[in-house]
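Dear V.,

Thank you for sending over the compound details. I've combined the ligand you provided, adenosine-5'-triphosphate, with the protein sequence from our construct and run the structure prediction for the complex. I'm sharing the raw inputs here so there's no ambiguity about protonation or stereochemistry in the SMILES, which I know was a concern on your side last time.
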Amino acid sequence: MFKIIKRIIIWIGDYKSRLYKGFVYSFFNSLFIAFPIMAGGFAMNMIYDDFKNVQKINPIWILYITLFIFLSVLGRFYTSYRRAVLQDSIIYELTAKQRIYIGDVLKRVPLGFFQSNKSGDITTSVTNDLSYLEMYGMKMIDTVINGYISVFTLILCLCFFNIYLAFSALIGVIFSTLALHFLGVKSKNNSSAHLKSQSRMVGSTIEYLKGIPIIKSFGKENFAIKNIEKAYEESKNINIKIEKNFVPFNCFHLFSLKSASVLLIFLSAYFALNGDMSIPYMAMMMIFSFVIFGHVETINNAVHVLKMIDTNMDKIEKIENAEFIDKDGSDIKLNSFDIKFDNVSFSYDKNLVLNNVSFNIDQNTTTAIIGPSGSGKTTICNLIARFYDIDSGNIFIGNENIKLFTCDSLLKNISMVFQRVYLFNDSIFNNIKFGNPNASREEVIIASKKARCHDFIMSFPKGYDTLIGESGASLSGGEKQRISIARAILKNSPIVILDEATASIDPENEHFIQEALNELTHGKTIIIIAHRLATIKNADQILVLDNGKIVQKGIHSELIKENGLYKKFLDIRKNAEGWKILKD
Ligand SMILES: Nc1ncnc2c1ncn2[C@@H]1O[C@H](COP(=O)(O)OP(=O)(O)OP(=O)(O)O)[C@@H](O)[C@H]1O
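Below is the predicted structure of the protein with adenosine-5'-triphosphate bound, written out as structure tokens.
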């Protein structure tokens, strides 16, 4: 338990001084809790002595004591307020920074990171786990550290009256801490199972929500629900198991404290009967026995929460410590934008996907990459943008090895238009502006006009401020594609990587998309995963890929004469486009 508290304190870093000042206020807060009880005992003792004619009471003393109690109450509220001001907001400030930092980390890790860490795990870390830390991190420090500060301060106050009573209270605290220790050991095993089941629950819920159209179209609602039900059942079972494991230690913890309270009452009565303690002080000790353990009684709940926080922090740290792909990179400014693959080999895990691939792309030319499905076309594009690190060989842009760049300085030079467009759950304006966050509204509109999407955007009642829903749910495939092209036009990078749409888009949309692409690619270095015959034929260079190797390289008029994969591929495409009745 204390190890985890220490871990949170280390994590708090620069805010430590505020935390420690908060502890000082906590100490004084506990004194202000004890002072009125002690003053009350003192007053009762004077009244008792007066009643027994031992010593006449001076009324001014009663006034002083009342004033003292009043000031203690004020002091108690003030210290409690100061502690809260100093400590409570620390965690909110920290987690906000942490979220931004994690966002930054995720931007700089290789894409392979997202395969080895399931999206459900990453999502729960950034959302649930950090929120959990946010909600409970500081509360737990308050419960445990301030709880113990309070109990030890009160025990210290007891020492002034009777050392045996203070010692009995200490024994109660020691036994209850032992119970908490065992509770912590049990909790350690359960918390990771608990978090895993939570992450499975989130994962299966996300999967279900994303797959609703497929589930509906295949009529598999029951099958999909079964996965979620299984995850929820698992979560229920682990929660019940945790509760069952906790009960005995919870009881032992409370039993130790309550027994110590009873012992305090018993000993006070014993000392009073023996004449070692006055009756008013006995009454005061009895009041003490009720309040002394109040702050540590709830620590049992903190133990499990702390273990959960510990496991959460492991998960968050795993993301934070992920190795940046550009850790040794620097900010490089390019003057030329030709691209060179020099004997590049690359594998996903152990699956070799590109095998000694070499080619050159001259600046301001168009290179079409063609090849069967799975031959490695998309992989080549992803490697230019350094989404993954290669196994061997080198990739150069403008004669600079891409390994020497930071991600930001490399990607500044590259615009990518994917087949599967991702749009954010935001306005159309912001989705386009994403290409250049510094762009003005006019620049966004100019880019949209070039991308042939201005007219359809203006047909919406809210125009550019139309919210387009998650992943652009309210737009057609062609419209989404044009918005993503507008985004790329706005970015205005010298290198454009394009994955030409294969999905059947109606001829009108296809015409607009083609016009938009012409605007985007004008005067740029273009790498295009090409499917249309016109694109392939007009390219300055065609790379024919098969099974991770370049099997043909050249221009259309040369390659068509060879009896190779290119000719075969073109025949297939011709037939396909003929079937679609498209002009090339
Ligand atoms: N993220 C990944 N993890 C593991 N293997 C992958 C991953 N992405 C692609 N592959 C595999 O690498 C090979 C090449 O994939 P790639 O997507 O580059 O091919 P492609 O030529 O673009 O295919 P398509 O035309 O179907 O899009 C395939 O065998 C694919 O299964």
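A first observation: The first helix runs from residue 2 to 12.

Warm regards,
I. M.
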